[in-house]
Amino acid sequence: MTGDGSATGVVVEPGAVRPRLRPHLRPGVAVTPLREGLHLRGRGTGLTLEGSRALPELWKLLAARLAPGPEAAEPVTEPKVAAALATVTARLREHDLIVDHPAGARLPDWPGAVADEPGVAAAALAAARPVVAAADPDGPLGRAVAQALAAGGTAAPTVVAEPGLPPGRVVASAGEPPVAVAVQCGTDGGFVTEPADPGRARADATALAARLGSDPGTVRAVSALPVLLAAAAAQRLLCAVAGLPDPGEPGDDPRLLGGRPAVLLAEARPPRAEHHPWAAGPGPVAAPPGDLAEALRRVTALGDARLGVLDAPSPGGLPQLPAALVSCGTPTGTLVAGAARTDLARLAAACRSAELHLAAVDGGTAPVVGADPDHALGRALRRAALARAVPTGPALPEAVWREHPQAAHWWETLARCLGRSPELTVRQFTDARVFQAEVEGARALEATPADAVAHAALAALTRLLARSSGLTAAHHTALTGAAAPLAAAGRHPAAWTDEGWTDRWLAELADHEADLRADLGRLTGLRTTPWRPATPAARAFAGALDGCGFTALVPAPGPASVSAGDAR
Question: Is the pTM of this model over 0.85?
C-alpha cells in the first residue's frame, strides 16, 4: 500500500483461485549478526539464536528466500542445510517475524508489519472512504487527521464542516458499517476515544471532556500535540477498519482491562501519550475476577489517576514491615488499610473506599462491596455479626490459639510494638463454629480461635503502625478471611510449608470460608440483595463497579435471600 492509497497487495475476488503464498520477513525487522548467532528485532518482539558460527552465513541464504518479490532462490538440496533453514524459519514464525504473502506481490510496510494477512488488510484500507468532521475543517487538527489517514493507505478522506462539534474536536469515521473515533486537542492535552459506532464515539467524547474538565482552547498549528493525537486517532481507526488489534487492547499492560474502553490521553508538555482504562465507560457487566492478581488489575482501573472513580490505594511512605499499610482519600477523610501483604491491603482499602464513596453519593443504605459475590457476602456477614451478635460462650484459654504460627506471630509483634502484653478476649458463639477475638479494641470473626486472634491482632497492629507513622486516618480497615479464596485461587503452596507461611495460611482460611459464611448466615439471619443506585452520581459509580466485576450488596427487604453465587 502506497501513501496515495493505491493497492500493491493481491486482492482475491470471491471464487477466484487464491495465489500461492510464501513466507516473507516482516517489514521493519532488524537483524544483527553475532559471533555465533543472530539477534532479530521486530514490532514488539525479539529473538536471539546462538550456538553456531554458521548462523550468520545461514542467515544470508535465508534472508534471500524471505526477501520481497518473486521467489528467485534456488532450492536447497543439502539435507542438513535444508533442515537448519526449516528450524530457523519455524523459530521466526513462532515469534511472528515472518508472514505468508503471495509470491511476486510486494509486502506493504503497513499493515505488513502487523497483519496476519497483509494483502487482505491493505485491500480493506484501500476500500475505506474516511470522513473527517470538525467545526473548523481547515483547522490544524482536522488537517492532521486527514493526512494521517491518507498516509495509512486509505483513499483521500472527505473533510466536512460540522458546526455542532466543539472547537478542537474531530470525529473520523470509515468502513461499512461505519466505525469512528473522536479526538480532542486543547492547549495542554487531549484524548482519543476507543473505536466504536459513530454515535457512541461522539457520546464518549462528550463524557470524557466532562470527566477530564477538558477545555479545547485554541490549537496552535505549530504545536506537536495535534500531530500526535491525529496519528493516534488514525492508527486506532485504521486498525479497526483493517481488522487489526486495537492499540488500546490490554495485551501485556496490566493497567488495561478487557471489556472496558481504553482512552488514549495526551499531554502537551512534554508531548507524550498513553492509554488509560475507563472503568466507568460504556460496556457490559464484567465477570468477577478469578484471583487476587486480576482483582488488583480492576482496583488499578478503579483508581486510575485520570479516569478512575477512587483514589488509588497506595503504600506511599507508609511502613510495609512488620505489617503492610496503604492509604487513600475518601469523601469523608483518609482511609488506612492494613494486612499481612501490600496486595491484600490494597484490596481491603479499595473495597472499603468504594463503600464510603457509595454512602456519600447514594443517600441510602451503604452497601458492602467485594471483588466477587463470595467476597462481598463474607464481608457483609462478618459486619452484621459484629454489629448484631454477642458471643455467649466463656472466654477461651490461650492454649487454644497460642501454637498457631500466624496467631502467635501477630500477637508477639503487637506486644513488641506496645511494650506490653495486649489485652485479649476470645469467645465462641454457641452452636456455631464462629469465634470472636478482641485484641486492644480490634475485633475479628473467623472459623477458628487462632484465625480470629491473628486477624484481630493484625488489625490492632496496623492501627498502631499508622498512628506511629503520623497518619491521622478517619477510617481504618484490615484484612479478613473473606479475601482468602481470591488470594489462594490458582496458588499451590509447597507441601513442606505450614501456616507460618502466608500462602499456606490463606489456603487454609479459604478452605474454611464457605462453612463460615453458612454459620454466620444462620447466626445473623442476614439476607442480601444486589445494591441498586438511586442517584445519577451513584449510577455512574455503579457502572464502574459493574465494569470491573465487583459486587455491592445490601440487606434484603423481604424474606428472600440472594445466594453468594447469584449476588451481583
Answer: no
